[in-house]
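testing teh design pipeline on a random one, pls ignore if ur not involved
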């Protein structure tokens, strides 16, 4: 049983080995067979038995397979026997085909002979080509030269000529066609020189026409660059908290009519920045320069180019006669010059030797002298400050543009200081008209206000500070008239306008502050002062207006310190800075006020004269009317009303005006008595005249203007009083006895005055008392008068001898 079980276990293993032998590559059978012998003893016998059994099985399968395919094999043999017949037929056909090929080969032999003859001809042609191989490149190069000439590729044509002369012509120089080509080359070179020179002339004419466009583009780019730099500086100043007035001097609402007006027609959208190469085709210059360089005549080309450009420079620098009339004339002049030198700068940097730095510097110095002379001459015709300002802005952009190209422009900025003085003069003329208009429109009455809004509106224009005035209830009146805030505003406008010119001059804040203060001083001391004086002297300006003018000048004088603070704020320069110029407004308004005071005195006296001219005395009346004359009472009432207006004036001014008026009235009354055309005066007329003088004395004693001490004002009439008392009392003995004594009762009576009046009364006595000589009293009075007249004459003669 054990053997059986062992045998049963071995059989599957042998089957596995057999399957592995059948399915494994022959090279790997060794290990498999070795495993047969590694097993139990006699295992290989069993394996051999198993192998024999497997072989028998395969033989049986092969036999079955052969039996299955035998009929097919028999059929194939039968078919093969049938093909033999067809093979014999095929042999006959192949033989026939071979015969026909032999017949056809005869024609091929003939064609082959023809080919041999062609080969011989080809060899001959090759020999000829080999002999002409040196001639064909010459012809090709010459043909290329013609094509280059036709295509206007002259520089390449010249290079081709050099190759022909140096490389190709020596190889075929023995041929006649080569000699003809050699003779034709100089003519071609001359043609190239003429054509290139013609192109250069066209180029020069083109850039002359397009210089203004080139210059306009360059100036616009310079302005954009400057605007960017200023904006960047503003940003930095804001970041570090610096004062912004110098870089942003004018408020936003005041920035119209700036330099951008010259280029505002351009599209402000983002666009490609054009360069001089985009606007001008410089290829003619390059070609001509290269051509003349190749021809060895570069110096001739350089001399011609520089000569022609100098001629164009003189034409560009020649301005139009009416250039000073509009800013466009100046702009066109500047853009042409900029365009010219931008082109020269480009030529300087892209070519070698055509123009040099020394040449451009010489050309620029010549041009700069001419430009300065032209601007100095034409700017002198400008009377519009806006035009002068636009000219300044153009000069600044012009200078900045050329400075960016390396040209020195310091002399242009020096010229701007000359133009600045002219600009200030035009501003002064303009503001003279502004001041005149303000004075013409003023009503010369205090500014009325009825509410807080109106009060703030005035305060916002003029720095008025008065605590007492602020405490007053509405409605109330400012002491000054409308012209004061208007003038103050216009002075600030003038400072703004003057500041506009100072921008972009590359000057320090201290220099700008000094310029502003000097120009403002000129405005105050010359323009405003002149306008005030002319206003004061106008015939239609009355006493009320003059009083208001004095009040106005007082407030304007007080506002000068605010103007100084205003300048300090916009320049950021402290008033305590050394060498800071002060404003002379104080002296200006003081002078104007003194002139107005003098005019008040003059007009007041003129008004008194007008009233005095209305006097209509009856110098022969026997008795007085018993009341003062009507003209005099009207005059006194007028003086009272006028002196009430004077209450707003400084005390000394009102007192001086009042004293001057009383003295002038006293003098006018005295002159009326002593008038040479008045021949006779009666005692009744003297008494009536005395009534008028009494009214004058009463007026003086009523203190029409406060501030007089005692009877100071009455002393204005002391001469008249003593004279009239002398004649009214007829106190000649006392006068003659005390004459010359300091304590004399009639110290103010001049003997000559008394003599003149006494003679007028003497003549009246004679005329009215023809028969009075028969009365004793009248005779005694007449003798007394004659005696007094003699004594007075002796006093007068003594005074004249003493004198």
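output:
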């Amino acid at each position: 049983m054990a053997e059986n079980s062992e045998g049963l276990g071995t059989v599957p293993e042998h089957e596995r080995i057999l399957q592995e032998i059948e399915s494994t590559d022959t090279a790997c059978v060794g290990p498999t067979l070795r495993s047969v012998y590694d097993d139990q003893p006699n295992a290989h016998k069993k394996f051999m038995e198993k192998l024999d059994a497997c072989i028998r099985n395969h033989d049986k399968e092969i036999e079955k397979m052969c039996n299955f395919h035998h009929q097919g094999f028999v059929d194939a043999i039968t078919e093969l026997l049938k093909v033999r017949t067809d093979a014999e037929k095929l042999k006959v056909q192949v033989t026939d085909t071979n015969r026909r090929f032999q017949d056809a080969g005869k024609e091929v032999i003939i064609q082959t002979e023809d080919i041999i003859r062609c080969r011989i001809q080809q060899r001959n042609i090759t020999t000829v080509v080999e002999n002409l191989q040196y001639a064909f490149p010459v012809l090709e190069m010459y043909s290329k030269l013609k094509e280059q000439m036709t295509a206007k590729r002259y520089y390449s044509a010249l290079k081709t000529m050099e190759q022909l002369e140096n490389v190709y012509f020596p190889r075929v120089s023995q041929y006649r066609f080569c000699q003809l080509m050699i003779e034709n080359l100089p003519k071609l070179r001359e043609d190239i020189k003429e054509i290139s020179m013609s192109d250069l002339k066209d180029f020069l004419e083109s850039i002359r026409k397009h210089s203004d466009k080139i210059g306009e583009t360059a100036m616009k780019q310079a302005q954009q660059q400057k605007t960017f730099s200023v904006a960047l500086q503003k940003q930095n100043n804001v970041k570090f908290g610096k004062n912004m007035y110098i870089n942003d001097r004018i408020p936003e609402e005041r920035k119209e009519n700036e330099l951008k007006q010259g280029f505002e027609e351009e599209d402000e959208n983002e666009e490609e920045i054009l360069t001089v190469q985009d606007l001008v085709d410089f290829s003619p210059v390059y070609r001509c320069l290269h051509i003349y360089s190749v021809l060895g005549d570069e110096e001739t080309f350089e001399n011609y180019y520089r000569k022609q450009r100098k001629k164009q420079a003189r034409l560009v620098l020649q301005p139009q006669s009416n250039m000073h009339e509009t800013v466009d004339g100046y702009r066109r002049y500047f853009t042409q010059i900029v365009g010219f030198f931008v082109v020269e700068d480009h030529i300087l940097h892209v070519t070698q030797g055509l123009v040099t730095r020394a040449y451009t510097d010489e050309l620029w110095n010549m041009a700069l002298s001419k430009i300065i002379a032209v601007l100095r001459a034409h700017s002198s015709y400008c009377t519009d400050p806006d035009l002068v300002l636009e000219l300044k802005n153009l000069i600044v952009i012009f200078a900045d543009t050329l400075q960016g190209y390396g040209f020195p422009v310091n002399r242009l900025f020096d010229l701007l200081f000359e133009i600045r003085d002219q600009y200030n003069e035009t501003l002064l003329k303009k503001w003279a008209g502004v001041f005149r208009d303000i004075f013409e429109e003023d009503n010369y009455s205090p500014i009325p206000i009825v509410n807080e809004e109106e009060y703030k509106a005035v305060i916002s224009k003029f720095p008025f500070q008065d605590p007492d005035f602020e405490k007053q209830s509405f409605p109330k009146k400012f002491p000054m008239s409308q012209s004061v805030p208007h003038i103050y505003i216009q002075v600030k406008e003038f400072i703004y306008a003057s500041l506009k010119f100072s921008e972009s001059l590359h000057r320090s804040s201290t220099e700008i502050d000094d310029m502003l203060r000097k120009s403002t001083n000129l405005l105050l001391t010359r323009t405003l002062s002149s306008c005030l004086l002319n206003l004061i002297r106008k015939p239609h300006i009355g006493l009320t207006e003059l009083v208001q003018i004095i009040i106005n000048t007082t407030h304007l004088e007080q506002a000068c310190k605010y103007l100084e603070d205003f300048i300090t704020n916009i320049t950021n320069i402290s008033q305590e800075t050394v060498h800071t110029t002060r404003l002379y407004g104080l002296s200006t308004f003081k002078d104007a006020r003194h002139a107005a005071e003098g005019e008040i005195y003059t007009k007041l006296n003129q008004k008194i004269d007008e009233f005095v001219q209305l006097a209509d005395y009856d110098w022969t009346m026997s008795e007085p009317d018993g009341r003062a004359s009507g003209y005099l009472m009207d005059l006194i009432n007028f003086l009272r009303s006028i002196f009430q207006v004077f209450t707003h004036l400084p005390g000394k001014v009102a007192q001086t005006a009042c004293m001057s008026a009383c003295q002038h009235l006293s003098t006018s009354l005295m002159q009326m008595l002593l008038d040479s055309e008045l021949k006779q005066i009666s005692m009744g007329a003297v008494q009536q005249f005395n009534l008028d003088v009494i009214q004058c004395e009463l007026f003086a004693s009523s203190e029409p203007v406060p501030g007089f001490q005692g009877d100071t004002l009455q002393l204005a009439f002391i001469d008249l009083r003593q004279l009239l008392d002398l004649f009214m009392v007829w106190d000649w003995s006392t006068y003659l006895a005390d004459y010359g004594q300091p304590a004399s009762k009639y110290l103010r009576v001049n003997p000559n005055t008394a003599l003149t009046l006494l003679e007028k009364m003497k003549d009246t006595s004679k005329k009215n008392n023809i028969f009075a000589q028969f009365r004793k009293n009248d005779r005694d009075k007449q003798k007394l008068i004659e005696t007094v007249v003699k004594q007075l004459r002796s006093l007068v003669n003594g005074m004249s001898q003493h004198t």
